[in-house]
Design brief:
Elements (H helix, E strand, L loop, with lengths): L1 H13 L12 E4 L2 E6 L2 E6 L6 E2 L2 E2 L14 E3 L6 E6 L2 E7 L6 E4 L2 E4 L15 E3 L6 E6 L2 E7 L6 E4 L2 E4 L1
Antiparallel strand pairs: 1-2, 2-3, 4-5, 6-7, 7-8, 9-10, 11-12, 12-13, 14-15
């Protein structure tokens, strides 16, 4: 009897609402909500940005970790040193950006100013970057963090060039 009751309680806690299947890529606004198809699953998110939801476009500019999204990455509206990534319709922390520009957007492109001590996602493991604080330093993503790899000699600074990093 006790085991049956425990099993019932466990099963009751595991139930979840069924997901609505969908096809296509159309998105529709209803008030401040956007409904769209994300890899075959219908999702609805609230558009909290000042432009709300308009013509199938959702303003997520004021969103933070855990709030709804469609695709891609964006800066966290609350923690400006955090770059977020959209995973299954929800914003998740992707990496930290502690350089002078922190997380930024320029001409529709989102960027992350990286320096030693920032977090580094697994997708960037073993990649090299120029340090945004000390421009003579080359940093590397290792074990989830950004660490010093090397320093440019003399008055040379780290720069991107020829498909990699060079000291100029």
């Amino acid at each position: 009897m006790r085991a049956a009751l425990l099993a019932l309680l466990i099963l009751a806690g595991c139930s979840s609402a069924p997901q609505t299947q969908c096809t296509g890529s159309s998105a529709q606004c209803s008030g401040s909500a956007l409904t769209f198809c994300d890899k075959g699953v219908e999702r609805t998110i609230t558009c909290k940005g000042p432009s709300g939801c308009d013509a199938g476009k959702c303003d997520t500019s004021t969103h933070t970790v855990g709030e709804g999204c469609e695709v891609g990455s964006q800066c966290d509206a609350v923690v400006t040193t955090r770059l977020l990534s959209c995973v299954s319709g929800q914003l998740r922390s992707f990496r930290t950006c502690s350089g002078p520009r922190q997380c930024y957007s320029d001409n529709g492109q989102t960027g992350c100013d990286v320096t030693i001590g920032d977090s580094c996602p697994a997708a960037y493991e073993a990649r090299y970057f120029c340090d945004s604080v000390d421009t003579q330093q080359v940093v590397k993503c290792t074990d989830g963090g950004v660490f010093l790899y090397s320093t440019c000699s003399g008055a040379k600074n780290c720069a991107s060039g020829d498909g990699g990093l060079i000291c100029l």
